[in-house]
Design goal:
By secondary structure, the protein is mainly α. The chain is built from 31 helices and ten strands. The strands form three sheets. A six-stranded mixed beta sheet has the order 2-3-1-4-5-7, sandwiched between helices. Bound molecules: guanosine-5'-diphosphate and magnesium ion.
């Protein structure tokens, strides 16, 4: 099968093109640095299938960043049949800089001139023929987003790879061309592939080349001594970069004709004005916090716009119908809550239908219990949160696609620097809100090992989609049981708590065990774009698919296991629901329960308190399991002990929580524990693969366990006995002072021998 590689600057639309060509749903984000690893797919619409490889975005082929190394090595070593060089037509000059480097490799190339829809909208004109002449490469105008020109592009690429292409360079008229030529001949003699490319990189004093070709490198040094030039003082890399830009700039007037009445300059002006507000020194962060709260309000609030007080006393929507309370109960429900309510109506109806069918078929009561309470109780409890998760991600995706998230990274870069992290580390952290696994993989772009370790450790603190049910269900329980707070305020504060703990952790680590340089980070603000319906829908579809697949695999299996061990005693007799406290699960739960006593949901949680311990432990497999386990157990406990009530889904979870003796601080501590502790199996496996040096992985697991216990017990203790705040404050003061003194060299630890 033929192999085509997509190469281009960050944010030029490579992943969009990749998705359009291969029908994949890889993550598209309107900011640089989202794709770190290469992705592969197959284009099937040509006469023969073609393998397409999406490479990370790069500005040059010099090995300064990991992305550059990945992309460079791929082209040189894997020898794709054709390189599709994607060029952002709205930013031609900068994008063509990379093109002038790729053309120095002996590989067929086609330029995909992307974002032509925007160029046309601005009324600018690009002369494709002139561009082809200038670069000596074939060019196809496309719009990856609108899927225009894709078939032509692929046809052209398939045609180009029929005959080999010899490298060319735009450095012909420079003073270095003879040196490059000599090096190239030398390399060719030594049997090196792509002699021109390596020769140019050698003259640029590229580290890798000097190491690989010491002989030729001497020649360059000799030449440098005799070289007279005031402007670059023998800095050949700068001289070459300048020559590349001059080559492009000289040809631009022929290629690009700007519309004198173009809207693009007006738009730039507007974008700058917006940026001045959104990235403001003082207001930037408060604006971000308000936007985030608005999102949480729209997703989780049961008192939309806080107008509940204006409504008549005891107002309940659709009273007496199955939709009772779905649209509001006291206040008006926000969109996320409405959707969640509708989902619950649907799952309840489905559950009742299945139960009815099983009963009329005369099945044994244990079988009905297993299916209806065990499996459906768990899975429906978790599925009912799918709408809210999707609403939340809809908003996140809009923030990202519009270009706003890149602005947030820009503001935070300054703060991060004080914490010893580069803004580069912000991208994997924000990705952690989606899922820790790709976020941890994204840390590969951090060149400093210690920065990478510190970042991976805090990624799980950025609460992922799977933790939404925990936050919402417990927040719901707090509101219903104690009649205090709002679900949106609680979930929002918990997200903030995660962020704050993450920042404090990073600060602590970067000042103690994880000191080091931070990765260079050039944040380029992408253009503001109208969020693309298609991108958003792809992302949501991907989320939903992932969530549902998990519900019917890992979570299904876990609920079955939970049901069995909660219905058999240690001597393997079957137990009815009301004897659940004699079950194997209860036995094990009661055994681990005391561990959580300092956190408030241990021994003091009463006879059923072991459910918290069990849920927290099953959550180590997948975080959805926490509420699924609650669902399964609640179905049994509520039907076993609250005989006259037929509660289902989340309501039964709330009822069960009410039956335990936990307090508000304990419930908050429970959320915090699940947010900060060891994440799911998948994330642990990823962390293990990424941190395969020294004891980084082992220490990371220890770090998660310690942080979750410390923070949650602080929450519980301070919430219950306010005066313990002084003890914690004193502890923090001691730690901080010791670190400061240690870093100033005022105190020394006994020397440990280096192994
Ligand atoms: P990558 O970093 O090169 O992989 O770029 P992405 O594929 O993630 O796209 C970056 C941004 O450009 C996203 O917001 C896309 O929606 C947008 N984009 C990509 N292709 C086009 C296009 O042809 N036209 C327009 N208007 N926007 C595009
Ligand atoms: Mg990408």
């Amino acid at each position: 099968m033929k192999k085509f590689a997509l190469v281009g600057n960050p944010n030029c639309g490579k992943t969009t093109l990749f998705n359009s060509l291969t029908g994949s749903t890889a993550h598209v984000g309107n900011w640089p640095g989202v794709t770190v690893d290469k992705k592969e797919g197959v284009y099937k619409k040509a006469s023969e299938p073609v393998q397409i490889i999406d490479l990370p975005g790069i500005y040059s082929l010099s090995p300064y960043t990991d992305e550059e190394v990945v992309s460079r090595n791929f082209i040189l070593d894997q020898k794709p049949d054709c390189v599709i060089n994607i060029v952002d037509a709205t930013n031609l000059e900068r994008n063509l800089y990379l093109t002038t480097q790729i053309m120095e490799i002996d590989v067929p190339i086609v330029i995909a001139l992307n974002m032509m829809d925007e160029v046309e909208k601005n009324g600018d004109k690009i002369d494709v023929k002139a561009l082809e002449e200038a670069m000596g490469l074939r060019v196809v105008a496309i719009s990856a987003l609108k899927e225009q020109g894709l078939a032509e592009l692929m046809e052209m690429a398939i045609g180009e790879c029929l005959s080999p292409r010899t490298a060319t360079t735009v450095l012909q008229d420079t003073a270095l061309i003879h040196l490059i030529g000599d090096c190239s001949i030398g390399m060719q003699g030594a049997g090196v592939d792509n002699p021109l490319f390596h020769a140019v990189k050698l003259v640029e004093s590229d580290e890798l080349e000097i190491k690989n070709h010491p002989q030729a490198s001497k020649m360059v040094e000799e030449f440098r001594k005799t070289f007279v030039d005031d402007k670059f003082a023998g800095d050949f890399e700068a001289l070459i970069a300048d020559a590349r830009y001059r080559y492009i700039t000289a040809r631009m007037p022929k290629i690009l004709r700007r519309n004198p009445h173009s809207q693009s300059s007006v738009k730039m002006e507007q974008a700058n004005k917006i940026d001045r507000v959104l990235t403001h020194k003082v207001w930037g962060i408060p604006i971000f916090l308000v936007i985030m709260f608005a999102i949480f309000h729209l997703t989780f609030s049961e008192n939309f716009l806080f107008i509940g007080g204006l409504l008549p006393e005891g107002w309940v929507s659709c009273q007496g119908t199955v939709f009772e309370g779905v649209f509001g109960d006291g206040g008006i429900n926000s969109i996320g809550v409405v959707l969640q309510g509708l989902m619950e109506v649907a799952t309840t109806a489905l559950g009742d239908a299945i139960r009815g069918a099983m009963e009329s078929a005369g099945l044994a009561s244990w079988a009905i219990g297993l299916v209806c309470d065990g499996v459906l109780g768990g899975i429906f409890a978790i599925l009912s949160f799918l709408p809210q998760i999707l609403v939340l991600f809809l908003f996140f995706s809009i923030l990202e696609d519009s270009g706003y998230m890149a602005r947030v990274a820009f503001i935070l870069d300054k703060i991060f620097k004080k914490f010893g992290l580069s803004g580069r580390a912000f991208i994997p952290m924000i990705m952690g809100f989606g899922c820790s696994v790709p976020a941890m993989i994204n840390t590969r772009t951090l060149s400093d090992k210690k920065e990478k370790v510190a970042t991976i450790r805090v990624i799980p603190f950025f609460s992922c989609g799977a933790k939404v049910p925990i936050l919402t269900a417990i927040a719901g329980a707090i509101v219903i049981k104690f009649g205090v707070g709002n679900a949106d305020l609680i979930t929002y504060s918990m997200y903030l708590l995660g962020i704050i703990v993450a920042l404090l952790s990073v600060m602590l680590m970067r000042n103690t065990t994880m000191q080091g340089d931070s990765s260079p980070f050039i944040m380029e603000l992408p253009a503001y774009r109208r969020p693309q319906f298609k991108n958003t829908m792809l992302l949501l579809w991907d989320k939903a698919k992932h969530f549902i697949t998990k519900a019917f695999t890992i979570i299904l299996a876990s609920t079955i296991v939970i049901w069995f061990v909660s219905h058999f005693s240690f001597n393997w007799t079957f137990l009815e629901d009301e004897r659940i406290n004699e079950s194997i699960l209860a036995g094990i739960g009661q055994l681990v329960q005391p561990i959580f006593t300092p956190l408030g949901f241990g021994k003091q949680a009463g006879a059923f308190g072991w459910v918290f311990a069990v849920a927290a432990v099953t959550g180590l497999i997948a975080k959805e399991n926490v509420i699924a386990t609650f669902g399964t157990l609640a179905a049994c406990i509520v039907s076993g002990f609250v005989a006259d009530e037929a509660l289902e889904g989340v309501d039964s979870v709330v009822q069960m929580i009410e039956m335990t003796g936990v307090t508000i601080p304990a419930l908050i501590a429970f959320i915090a524990f699940n947010m900060l502790t060891i994440p799911c199996f998948a994330a642990v496996a990823t962390a293990k693969a990424e941190l395969n040096f020294e004891h980084a992985f082992r220490n990371t697991v220890i770090y998660w366990v310690c942080t979750s216990f410390l923070v949650s017990s602080a929450i519980y203790l301070i919430g219950t006995y306010w005066w313990t705040a002084f003890i914690f404050a004193a502890l923090v003061a001691v730690v901080v002072t010791s670190i400061v003194l240690y870093n100033k060299g005022k105190i020394k630890l006994p020397n440990r021998r280096k192994v």
